[in-house]
Specification:
220 residues, alpha/beta, TIM Barrel, 8 strands
Length: 220
């Protein structure tokens, strides 16, 4: 079943608790948690303390996307803060990705890698056996509200073929410019998890939007 992971980057930061409670009630599957360090990307968001603050408010998995230069430094803090999933960019300064993924698993979390739009899937092929998921950015990371990059669909199809050929159950997650139209395209291409920020938090009815994003799910 397709999972919808609303990004709280698009929530009202002054009412983050209420935003999380809303997602509990409106049918979200995961909570996507964007971490930016002002170095890897030109923006700064939140860190482990925010994760710790929202953890008691939800039973949903917290999906932490590390847009930082030294992701290994944040494995222990986010594990302690209650994260469930941790993904790291292959473009970051992390030189030993296998070791980092193994460390995430050792900390009791699900682990994955992230590819920017211009990064080919060949950058993660030899990591797939260590990955619970691969996050494909469908916009350039750093800011919400951007438009979906169509070339992402080709990457999804190619990655889906690689995963299936290897007999793995690695999930494909898509982040950026997800709306009902692009969600349908991503699902048809082979995506499993859709991150949606603006689409959900700017909707008149977030619950209906979550249903619309999941509505083209033909995998049930």
């Amino acid at each position: 079943m397709i999972k919808i992971a609303p990004s709280i980057l698009s929530a009202n930061f002054a009412a983050m608790g209420e935003a999380v409670q809303m997602l509990n009630e409106k049918g979200a599957d995961w909570i996507h948690f964007d971490v930016m360090d002002g170095n890897f990307v030109p923006n700064i968001t939140f860190g482990p303390d925010m994760c710790k603050a929202i953890r008691p408010l939800t039973k949903l998995p917290i999906d932490v996307h590390l847009m930082v230069e030294h992701p290994s430094d944040w494995i222990a803090p986010f594990s302690a803060a209650g994260a469930d999933v941790l993904t790291i960019h292959v473009e970051s300064s992390e030189r030993h990705l296998h070791r980092a993924l193994q460390a995430i698993h050792a900390a009791g979390l699900k682990a994955g890698v992230v590819l920017n739009p211009a990064t080919p899937i060949s950058a993660c092929i030899h990591l797939l056996s260590e990955c619970d998921l691969v996050l494909l950015m469908s916009v350039n990371p750093g800011f919400g509200g951007q438009s979906f990059i169509p070339e992402t669909l080709r990457k999804i199809r190619a990655l889906r073929a690689e995963i299936d050929a290897r007999g793995l159950d690695t999930l494909i997650e898509i982040d950026g410019g997800v709306n009902p139209e692009t969600a349908k395209q991503c699902i048809e291409a082979g995506a499993d998890v859709l991150v949606a920020g603006s689409a959900v938090f700017k909707a008149k009815d977030p619950g209906e939007m979550i249903r619309l994003l999941r509505g083209s799910d033909n995998k049930d």
